[in-house]
Design goal:
It is built from 14 helices and no strands. The protein is mainly α. The radius of gyration is 19 Å and the shape is globular.
Length: 321
Amino acid sequence: MNFYFKTFIDVLSVTIPIFVVVAIGYIFRKTGIISEKAVPGLNKIAYYLGLTTLIFTSIVKYDLKEIFNIGMVKTLYTTFAIFIVIVFISVYFLKVKRKTKGAIAISSFRCNMAFVGIPIIISAFGDIAGAKSSIIIGFMTPVNIIFSIIFLRILGGQDNERKKYGKLFLSFLKDPLVIAAVAGMLISYFSIPLPKAFLDILNILAGLAIPLALITIGASFKISHIKLNFKFLILVSLLKLIIEPFIAFLVGRYIYAINSIDIIITVILFGMPLAVAAYIMGREYDSDSDFISSALIFSTITSALTITLWLFFLKIFFRVA
């Protein structure tokens, strides 16, 4: 079979099931199988229980030396530094309401690395790639929270009391994904043995993560306000789904020259759609939550195409089966 055709089929076999499950979540909410009131609770279960245990167990399976690459960390932060300047310049001069500026900004860089990224990476490259993704999430979550606060403060949102900013600024210390990643790395580094029964419990809980996370994303969709903000949604999706992963590709390949699988993982994670957490933070800061909701839907739908194309391009470029 032609290599390009086989690669394309392999990529579709990764992305189609992921987005079909998201669609099932949407259908479940529309038909009442999942009530609108149940969605926030399901999101919390997926985030605090499923994804946290998945990240922890995926890391402790391996020796840290096997999955940690300082070049990936350098690539992450260099990419983010370059991209955040592009976002600021792109958004600052837009002639829109102040609240909408802040919403456009955080919608451009908050990536759903955990809910969508981990399932895609594991499906495409296996558990060890999932472990590397978990480490990336541990490093990126604090940065995302901090810059979300900065952008909402500078570009738009209500001028809340200082203590609220401090509360959100420090919230990354209590973020369960960060805690899980740090705990997993410490246990992996020091080779601390864990009781089999304890690991079995965690593995069962981790099994909740991928299906529940994808279903809750679909169940969260409310298709409204998209027509009103269409041109700005195009801008956000272009920045998030094309420009940011392209910068990651250039930085990883030509500046730090990390290995091909690590480049692919980094590019794909930076090419994820908007994170649900951005909507929560936007409401906390009295930003344009309607725009963020529209960006969440629009970027998730369009990412079905862009993630497929990125995976295809990267597998062809690096000749990865």
